[in-house]
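Sample entry (245 residues):
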Amino acid sequence: MIPHAANEHRDRQLFDRRLFRAAAIVFPLIVLAGFARTYYVKGLFDVPPLASILHVHGVLMTAWVALFATQVWFISSRRIRLHQRLGYAGIGLGALIVIVGFATAVRAAKFGFNAAPPGIPPLAFMAVPLFDLLMFVMFFGGAIYYRKQPAEHKRLMLLTAVNFLPPAIARIPIASLLALGPLWFFGLPTVLTLLCLGLDAKRHGRVNRVFLIGTVLLIGSYVVRLLVMTTGPWMNFAAWLVGFV
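Predicted structure, serialized as tokens:
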């Protein structure tokens, strides 16, 4: 490899490390900011008790945040073998997240759980967490498929993190931002994803096709869920789902 090409390759690797280190810091901080009052330090605030399934869901999602940060650290410190071994445990954790997340979404739609924002029927709001799970399955499944192609694998894993941001963003206790509704809790992840995509393309001199497709699917899912959540077919489907609980 000629010196110029070697330097360019090294610069791109450095950019990737910095981008994912930033994600490994920002992701947990946003989750903590959103769920501190209602979960992590709920004992300090006057909030309703949580149903048992919400505790299980919270533990699994906390484990996913920790897994994401740990895997980034393993790659940054070149502990590839540990990264790969932990990845197998991540597959099991991902499966549990989908199963428990689905059960939580359905039970929240039937029994309330204070999950839906004021003014939105629980059955309608169920579209939001179910689409979250659908996108997670697509991104994480894609990351497993591309596990031997690092460029695609790590960008899909980044999208799994961004995909789980809206629930936390929607709970950050800043009234002026919460008043913006979907413009805030879907808008911020959209901006962050497009920023990462743009910086990635600029640094590497091209757009990663898998990253682009994933970005379009994620942002498109925000629009789709808002469009379908109050329609008759969705409400009928949601009522049918909760009928099994």
